[in-house]
Recover the amino acids of this structure.
């Protein structure tokens, strides 16, 4: 055998050995550092579930946003891995309006409700003619607010559509209520100036108010599930399934219930 042939064979062996010793690239299933968007309310649920996430080997980082649209945009853009704060219809509305590619993990974790509140009146029939009422200004929660008031017999909405209602779709308004659209996180604060406001239980609770002290409440809260929101491409990943499941351990549920005092209802 020629010397050149021997040297070439040895070089090949060393090259193969070197390739075999290279560190394996991390795959998506190996992902352990997880950034999760939240708001000033949902961060408490994340903190309650943090130990369960860490027990599964994850290193969660919670990034607080003041605006739900910005939080979902951060997920969609890849600046964070997931979000835990928004209900599913809100996420779907984001996808439609912003061209988002987000998905909500299942099984769903929990849901909350909205109510009509007032610091000036103790019963809904006390609201005066021309009362100013705050409703949430995003499409899905505005729709939910108006449907809640129709269910209570305060207004009548057009029969020409089933959803996506705005104040322009009110066909009967016996007490001539004036609806003022406000960002959902600011509706509680509007109670100082307006006659009433539609508010999430969560924001009432977080403001130190009694969330059970509503004049009326929504009748379809379970249709607005909350769980981990991720990019559609990540919905089948191990890390997304594990993080979502972390909210429903016995310890996590206890931590959430201890803090929120019944604001959330877990799906069974």
């Amino acid at each position: 055998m020629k010397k050149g042939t021997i040297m070439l064979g040895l070089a090949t062996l060393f090259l193969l050995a070197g390739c075999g010793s290279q560190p394996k690239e991390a795959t998506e299933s190996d992902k352990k550092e997880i950034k999760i968007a939240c708001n000033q309310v949902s961060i408490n649920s994340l903190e309650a579930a943090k130990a369960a996430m860490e027990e599964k080997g994850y290193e969660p980082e919670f990034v607080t946003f003041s605006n739900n649209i910005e939080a979902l945009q951060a997920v969609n853009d890849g600046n964070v891995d997931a979000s835990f704060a928004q209900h599913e219809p809100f996420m779907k509305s984001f996808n439609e309006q912003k061209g988002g590619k987000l998905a909500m993990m299942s099984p769903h974790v929990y849901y909350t409700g909205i109510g009509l509140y007032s610091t000036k009146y103790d019963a809904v029939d006390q609201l005066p003619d021309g009362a100013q009422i705050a409703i949430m200004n995003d499409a899905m929660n505005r729709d939910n607010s108006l449907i809640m008031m129709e269910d209570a017999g305060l207004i009548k909405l057009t029969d020409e559509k089933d959803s996506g209602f705005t104040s322009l779709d009110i066909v009967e308004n016996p007490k001539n209520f004036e609806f003022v659209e406000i960002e959902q996180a600011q509706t509680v604060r509007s109670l100082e100036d307006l006659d009433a406001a539609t508010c999430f239980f969560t924001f009432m609770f977080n403001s130190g108010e009694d969330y059970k002290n509503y004049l009326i409440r929504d009748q379809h809260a379970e249709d607005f599930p909350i769980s981990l929101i991720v990019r559609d491409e990540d919905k089948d990943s191990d890390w997304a399934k594990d993080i979502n499941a972390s909210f429903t351990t016995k310890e996590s549920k206890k931590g959430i219930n201890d803090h929120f005092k019944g604001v959330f209802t877990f799906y069974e």
